[in-house]
Amino acid sequence: MNWDILGQQIWNGLLNGSIYVIFAAGLSLVFGVMRVINMAHGELTMLGAMLLFTVTSVMGLSYFAGAALVVVMMALAGFLVNRVTVRPFLGHSELVVILSTVALSFILLNGSLVVWGSTPKGVDKPFNEVLQVGGVYMTTAQILLVGVCFTAVLALYLVLTRTKLGKMTRATGQNLLGARLIGINTTAVYDATLIIASGLAALAGVLIVLISAASPNLGQPLLITGFAVVIVAGMGNVGGAVAVGLFLGLTEALFGQYVSTFYRQGYLYVVMIIVLLLRPQGLFGRR
Amino acid sequence: MLEITSLDVFYGRVQVLFDVSITVPEGELVTVIGANGAGKTTLLLTVSGVLKPQSGSIRFEGREIDSLPPHEIVGLGLGHVPQGKELFPAMTVLENLEMGAHMVRRQDELEERLERAFESFPRLSERARQRAGTLSGGEQQMLAIARALMAKPRLLLLDEPSAGLAPIIVDHLAEIILGMNSSGLTVLLVEQNAFLALELARKAYVMESGRVVESGDTEVVMESDLVRRAYLGI
Asked: Which of A143, A125, A142, A138 is nearest to A64 (CA)?
């Protein structure tokens, strides 16, 4: 057993897992509160990455200033996502909302291909020194990514459990009619939910460019992975999505190293199918 | 305090309430009885703003409320304990109560209201840290009422509070409802349990298939042939 290789794969898995966690947390939040499957979540992340490329390379902002600007802009865009693609269709069949978010994702993807082209774009990292910890190589940019992901998820947890807005959001997710009848403005809660989720999606986007290039095509595969995480965890369970995202990121890297590089791509889906067969409501889901 | 005039309500193209008029004077306990499907729950949901009437008007303390969203109606002082309780099952009893007072900004005010809730419902204070979903049916009903009271409503709509509860708990509940009313809360009670409702209320309305078919002082309504036959079985 080469411990350095094991350590390196754990670190690599942690990097991917961090992205899965922050991506799936937003996806799961929207489903948990609104019972809406947001098919555009991946493109919101993609847009975060592409906008960061534009504001840093074209407008000359620093990475941090650009990232902050993009996340705030995308969070505000979450309000429009709700008012234009979700809210008008609530009360119709769930399929209608799914289709309207699919439409949004097509518009964002193809619009981005027109604006930025399909060639991946590199974004300048704020710092990128290589460190050696034990036998494991990591860059400072990677450490930043992991740190920010976990800070964001912890912040989300604190907002949902400690603040009034967070409790009102959970209440609305658990019982919409009950929330309306005690006077919670559920329209405002839905706006806030998509604002937070869209901000988280964009945050994932500005972090992804720390470990790979920005490209209009990065949203789709991420959405599929995100769904695998959310389904394994149990739809709408944000805490479960965090645990499963991390677990799948780690085990996927180890699978690629020790079992098969070739089948690595399929690993997540095999896990998803097995979980669905044994526990259709997901690991943390309730029937 | 609450004046419902000629209310017509539809689910899609199906009319479920026909020309319903009901008045609840301040300080009174008024009941609406009727069989399953008579439109009682629809009536309350329309008053709360969850359903919108096709025509007719709803006035609360003189103010037209039928075009307002539910959260604004609650803000005016109208509480609603729905059929099926509609609690937040994964939140604790304490959190459910806090949610009932979500419009309260001051911490000391919130704590005062919590204290009063636990005083009126000692059972809930024993269960404060427990998830609402783990409570018994009677406790859930208490929590639903206490949650609505956290907003300090002046009018409380109660939808079938006795449904599915054991007789001894129904008696306890009846005392609680009478107690709330005698301390100044106006109550509109909807019940299938006509015995209970007619025992508590001074004024009663009887609904059938979406229409009010009888109304008046409870003693008079109780004596009517319709009620004796259909609801009291005597």
From this structure: A125
